[in-house]
């Protein structure tokens, strides 16, 4: 075994995932309107369903971003430089990072950060086998919260963030600024490669989140499956419909679970009423113009340096420089 290979998975520093989910879910059902963070989609089943979504013909973001990376990874690597310490926020299946790692000159370490510990460890094992000279340190944590990076064996020349998939779109703009400010502090003096989905025809967006195979609907409803399993809830999946639409005023896709009849749901001893048409808001996915995202990045302390797009300008990958003195 290569002595530089270090596969570790650390639990999130605060609550365990089930108790955090329980607290968030009950708060969601007592709020008006009812809404919950999309990070709770990603239990083991949710990760598998999302992997299926990424391969759907209607879901353009994954293949479009992969195309950008395939064409421009060496340009991105030139921006990053040799000896980088690469931190991936929300690592998932680690497909895109392979393209970047192959292009980079002597990267020192790769730290994938993800909330789904079991999925993270399995994917990190696969990646480490493909890059035997790379120190790999998977970190099971909520990347939207504060977390401590493990010590690297070798000192890097720069710390680089990688945040593909347009996951930044899941944050409301104020939350996106807060996340980027925190990332700038972590990456002080380095930079970030970040994927950003762009504003486009509503029909393209609608198809991407309402696939004919029903995989996105199953992904959305899996939140209720998880609640039934982990929280002893009694959601009837047939009583809720997947509903996703583009809100052009807010420049975002909204995803909801809509009650299709009057019903009651019990979690432990507490009963929650759902009227017909009442929703649980499960996700937003904001879409940006190029100038709009660059403005957001500057407000968070980054300096936009370069952007790469596909020919249709449906998707973008931005290189942002992090200040050395980020607050």
Task: Kindly describe this structure.
Helix 2 (44-54) runs antiparallel to helix 8 and helix 3 (60-80) runs parallel beside helix 4. The chain is globular, with a radius of gyration of 20 Å. The strands form three sheets. Strands 2, 3, 4, 5, 6, 7, 13 and 14 form an eight-stranded mixed sheet that branches. It has two domains: 17-25 and 202-286, no CATH class; 60-200 and 288-321, Rossmann fold, CATH 3.40.50.150. It is 35% helix and 24% strand. It is of the alpha/beta class. Strand 10 and strand 11 form a beta hairpin. It has helices spanning 17-29, 44-54, 60-80, 96-103, 117-130, 173-186, 202-209, 215-230, 290-299; strands at 34-35, 84-89, 109-114, 135-136, 139-140, 158-163, 191-197, 240-247, 252-259, 263-267, 270-274, 279-286, 303-309, 315-321.
Keywords:
single chain; 327 residues; alpha/beta; Rossmann fold; 8-stranded mixed β-sheet; 4-stranded mixed β-sheet; 14 strands; globular
Number of domains: 2
Mean of residue pLDDT?
Answer: 92
Which bin fits the share of residues in helices? 25-40%
What CATH first level of the largest domain would be assigned? Alpha Beta
Overall outline = globular
Structural class by secondary-structure content: alpha/beta
Number of helices: 9
